[in-house]
Amino acid sequence: MKLLKILSFFLIFLIAGCAPLQKADLDQAQGLSLGGDDAEIVMRIGQSKASGHPVSKGIDRFAELVNEKSEGEIYIKTFHDAELGSDREVIESAQQGTLDLAASSTPNMVSFTELFQVWDLPYLFENKDEVYQAVDGKPGQQAKQELRENGFEVIFFPDYGFRQFVNNQKEVRVPGDMNGMRVRTTNSSIEMDDFRAWGANPTPIAWGETFTALQQGTIEAEGNSYSLLWDSNHQEVLDYATEINYNYSSDIVVMNKERFDNLSSEHQDVIMEAGQEAKTWQRNLANEREEEAKEKFKEFGIDIYEPTESEMDEWRKQSEEVWVKNVDQGNLDEEYLNSILDELGKTRKEIFE
Fold first, then answer.
1. DSSP string across 2-43
2. What's the burial of 216, exposed, middle or buried (CB within 10 Å: 0-12/13-18/19+)?
3. N or C terminus of the chain: which is more exposed, having fewer CB within 10 Å?
4. What pLDDT digit, counting tens, does each position of 90-148 carry?
5. What is the chain's Cα-based Rg?
6. Which H, E and C letters describe 317-350, residue by residue?
7. DSSP per-residue letters across 95-150
């Protein structure tokens, strides 16, 4: 029956004179090929990143795996490019149950668990190996549990990447060079504190509005990964990049917990297994694409500055006041921070010495 439907669809297409497929036609074709037309369970997932971004590709891969593993019983329709709303909007919709699943960068999830503020501390993670060790280990499990208590089931953590500083004003080598710059940030108070520590003026703006804000001069700079910037065409409104890896921002895919709990145990297993497989697939893609995007930036004409070792010491040491303000003054969960440091086998002193 499914084969007949697919053949009928393409027969209509041919009779129509091979006219270009419209979006609705593509959606219908995708639904037929993945079993969406007659699936027992149909769900939607929304997020704000461009459809070509590694996070988006990982979500598409997750949807494919769910369909395959459920033998067509579950069909997940993916929506990218903020089609269903900003990070905040889709996450709130998933919490309320008006959307089945949603994805967001973790800094935009701090309203649901303050543990993610700890992840935002500058220079907490030195490299991707440390990130994966913490996210896949006990610290990641603890964050998942807190989100369960707030109405979410965490499916997996896609790799978003280390943030770099980019602007359209001038070359920035050391923190003092960005003095007074208006910088777009997420809603993370930690990221805002980062830029205050470096002398800039942080301005939280929704991701979908950032390109226009740069274009119109509302802001002059932002912090983000090369791949997200390139996939969202931000090279068109930027001129300079400074590779400082000031924090790692994970992404997160969540499902409305009640919706998840109402699935059969077999279907729950399918969702979680697909998430784990998609995570591994996506991380490999993300690391490849980050290097590719950096090279594309250079080819486009963006000036990328890589600080010297002494200059990097300056970035780190000047950001230590963010730790003092938020850890020493009790604004963050110090016990949770210590659990991350213990997982990684290092100390706070080693980060800044």
1. HHHHHHHHHHHHHHTTSPPPPHHHHHHHHHHHHTTTT-SEEE
2. exposed
3. N
4. 999 999 999 999 999 998 888 899 999 999 999 999 999 999 999 999 999 999 999 99
5. 21
6. HHHHHHHHHHHHCCCCCHHHHHHHHHHHCCCHHH
7. HHTSSSEEEEEGGGGTTT-THHHHHTSTTS--SHHHHHHHHHSHHHHHHHHHHHTT
